[in-house]
Every structure is written in structure tokens, then in C-alpha cells.
Amino acid sequence: MATTSGRPGIFAVRDVRSLITETAEEGHGLKKAVGATHLTAMGVGAIIGTGIFVVIGEGAGIAGPAVILSFVLAAVACAFSALSYAELASSIPVAGSAYTYTYATLGELVAWIIGWDLILEYGVSVAAIAVGWGGNLNAFLDAAFGVALPDAIAKSPEDGGIFNLPAVFVVLAITFLLIRGVTESARVNLVMVAVKLVVLLFFIVVAFANFGTGNFQPFAPDGVDGVTAAAAVIFFAYIGFDAVSTGSEEAKQPARDLPLAIIGSLVICTIFYVLTAVGAIGIASPDQLEGSDAPLAAALDQGAGISWAAAILALGAVVAITSVVLVIMYGQTRIFFAMCRDGLLPQRLAQVNQRYGTPARLTMILGVLIAILAALVPLSEIVKLVNIGTLFAFVLVNIGVIVLRRTRPDMPRPYRVPWSPVLPILGIAFAVYLMSDLPWDTWVRFVVWLVIGVVIYWLYGYKNSRLRREQSATPGWARESDPRTPEDGDPS
User: Fold this and answer.
1) In the prediction, which pLDDT does 294 show?
2) Region Disordered: what ranges (predicted)?
3) Could you read off the pLDDT of 401-455 as tens digits, one per residue?
4) Among 224, 283, 295, 485, which lies 20 to 30 A Cα-Cα from 458?
5) CATH number of the domain residue 444 falls in
6) Which residues of 348-375 are buried (b: 16+ CB within 10 A; e: fewer)?
7) How far apart are CA 326 and CA 126, in angstroms?
8) For the range 259-262, what are the long-range contacts, defined as Cβ-Cβ under 8 Å and sequence gap of 24 or more?
9) Domain annotation covers residue 8
10) For 57, how many CA atoms within 13 A lie in the half-sphere containing its CB?
11) What are the Cα distances from residue 253, in Å, to 33, 37, 96, 101, 231?
12) Are 104 and 400 in contact (CB under 8 A)?
């Protein structure tokens, strides 16, 4: 794959040691400030959002009481990819998540593609979640105080409004918090995670205090097909644990804390999800849950007779969504930061603010762009790209574990995926299966976005790549498909 000029080609692989070394560069290194507790809270903060407050009703409508098994099955499907994220995050503690892991395993072009994919996934996700935050804020104001913001300033033009002020407010507020520092952001997130777990615990306690078994028959009206179909829907309520890996570079002890946070957050959320599902079925029928836009509040109202519960659940949803906006936007800035530091995007944006220890300029630019997106742009169609983008990242991370095991067998791995390559292959299989169930128009939009990305890479990223600039004068770039060769940028 060598070029005639001796410059590395499009599948050049970054050496792991050089990736880690550049994190200590003056002006380009992030502050190591978060531990296992804050990282785990980031995972929980990203996972528990509107999903559990809404998707349980849709799942119950598909699988009946067996939606409980659907939650377990969806967690297992995520677990395979979570294990792969844990191995790579502990082995390559560098900002960028799947983008960085792909750069170290499959080469620059593939890394650019997944980075470009993650830019869309995280950016659209934050904008869409911010819009949902505004809707839930109105629901809380209505349930608690009987008032609501007028549609003109509470909805986007797509939904009949003029300007979505709540969405802009939450995005800009989170932007300023992220600029101030990762420690401050992690502390605020920890408080919000505690609040939403208390709200879910309130629901669980009340539900089990009024529990009955009458709604559990028939348990699985549509059999295995119903369980798997509901799991495909519920799967997306678990997405978010991957955002923990974007904080690799800022972890105090990444080798220990990152695997614990990634796997731990998934386990914690699974326990809460399953207990919530059992409690909901114990006090409300699947039909009652499916027929409500706020199924947990409906379950408490109709099953336990607590009409004022809607305000508590609405508050929980607002806090939950705020936490998701914070963590997902944090992940977006760190992925963009890594791509800028590598020269694939303007490198000057990777400058770290010396006072706050964060990429302040980059964070502000992304915050303003996302706020505009949330305020004015129709999101109903492009938000579907979030699902396919996440699953595509899962596929490449699992492949990355398999590739690095073969090409870097002696690389230190504080955490190792057990039974590799079997579990990573299962992670790939689950992701591909779920991707295959997505509508064709989502695939078309996804391919168009990637084509645009390849054009930008060819016009800018390829020429300005840090790897290419540093190695252009180095002779012997002959075997770039083998990341073990010194010619591929290995300082050894």
C-alpha cells in the first residue's frame, strides 16, 4: 500500500505508543481528573434517559409481560460490545473512543469514516435529546404547576413553533459547564444520576408495595418472536455506555477504572430496568402501558392510585435527559478533539484551555452548532441515523479487539475480553442483526453521509494528517497493512 512518494497511504495505522505519547504534549493533553465513581455515573447518565420512561410501554405492547426478558436479552446483546470497549479503553487510554481504536487497528481511512459517523451520531443525538428535554420540561410544568410554555418558543418549526428555546437553553448551559472543566461536569452529572435513580427507586418501591400477579398471564403472548422484536426496540434504551470510553484520556487510573465503569454502568442500568419492568407489569397491564405516552406515570396512577406521581416521573425524566445531554455532548467534544489533534480536522481546534484543562474553543463551536440544530432543524428523519451509527461503531470496536489480539499480541491489556474471538464475534453478529432490521431509507442517508465524509477526507484530512506530515520524510513505508512494522509509525 506504499505510495510512490514514500508517504503513508490511506490505511496507515497509528502505533499505540505514539497515540499515548501525544496525550502528554503541552497544549494538547487533557487533564486527568475523573475516577471510577464519576466514570460509572457518566455511563449511567448516558444510558438512563427517556428510554426507560417511554420505551417500556412500546416493548410491553410487543412482548406482553415477557418484556422483562426483552430487557435482559437487550442487555446481553450490549454486553458483548461493552466487553470489547472495556478492553480497548484500558489498553489505549486516549480520547476518541471507537475512532481512536480503529485508527490503531484498521487504518486512517476507516478511522476517519467511523469518526465522521460518530460526529453525526453524537451531534444529532444531542440535538434530538435537547428537543425531548423541552417537551418533558413542559410536561413537568403542566403536571406540577398546571402551566406550560407557549408552542411558539417551545417547539421547532417542524412541530408548529418558531424557535425551541428550552432546547437551546439546555445545550448552551451544558456547553458552558463542559468548558469549565471535566471535574465540575462529572460532579453535576453524579448529582443528576443520583436524582434519577431515586425517582426510579421510588417507582419500584411503590410498584412492589401494590404488586399483583394478574397481569402476568399470558406471559409471552407472541412467544420468542415477540421477545426478540421487543428486545430490538429496547436495545436502544441501553445505548450510551460507549460514551464512557471517550473519557479515557481524563481517567485517573484508566487501566482499572474504565473497564469497571463501562461494565458497571451497564450492570446497574440492567438491574434498574428489569426491576422497573417487573414492577410496571405488577401494577398495570401491557395494554395500559402501551396506551400511554408516560407509561410509568400511568402505571402508578391506574395501578397504585397515585395520581400525583406524574409530576415525580416527569421531574425524573427532565433530570435524566439533562444528564444524557451532558454525557453525550462530552463524548462528542472528545471525539472531535481527537480527530483535530490527529490533523484530520483543523488542528488548531485541539488546543486545550490552560485555565480549565478542556478544549474550550472546540466545545463552544460545537455547542452553538448543536443549539441551532435543536432550535430550527427538522430532526424526525435524521435522528434515525443515530441507531445505525452506534451499531456501526459497535461492529468496528469488536473487530478492533480481534485485530489487535493478532497484530499486537504482547501489548499490555489490563482488561481482556474472555473467550476472544468468540464474544467479539457475537457482538458483531448482534449489531449486524439489528442493523439489518433498519429501514432502507436510513441506510441511504447513512451512505450519503459517509460519501460526503470521504470527499472531505480526500480534500483535507489526507493532506493534513499528522501521521502523514510526520512520516512523509521517513523512507520505507512498504508494509502499512502490518501495524507491527516500524515503518508504520512505531517509534521502536
Assistant:
1) 77
2) 471-492
3) 999 999 989 888 999 999 999 999 999 999 898 888 778 888 898 999 999 999 9
4) 485
5) 1.20.1740.10
6) ebbbbbeebbbbbebbbebbeebbebbb
7) 9
8) 259/86, 259/87, 259/89, 259/90, 259/414, 259/415, 260/36, 260/39, 260/40, 261/36, 261/39, 261/40, 261/42, 261/43, 262/43, 262/82, 262/85, 262/86, 262/89
9) no
10) 16
11) 10, 12, 17, 19, 34
12) yes
116 lies in some domain: yes
Among 50-59, 181-190, 472-481, which range has the highest average pLDDT?
181-190
Cell of 226: 415477540
Residue type, 46: A
Q: Cell match 479487539: residue?
A: 401
Which grid coordinates are listed for 242?
A: 460507549
Closest to 131 (Cα-Cα) out of 169, 97, 104, 96: 169
Please give the DSSP secondary-structure letter assigned to residue 3. Answer: -
DSSP letters of 418-468?
Answer: TTTTHHHHHHHHHHHHHHHTS-HHHHHHHHHHHHHHHHHIIIIIHHH-HHH
Q: Which of 45, 15, 297 is nearest to 177 (CA)?
A: 45
- Structural domain harbouring 262: 16-485
**Residue whose grid cell is 487533557:** 30
Strand (E) positions, 295-436? none
For the chain, the domain total comes to 1
**In-domain check, residue 89:** yes
Helix (H, G, I), strand (E, B) or coil at 251: strand
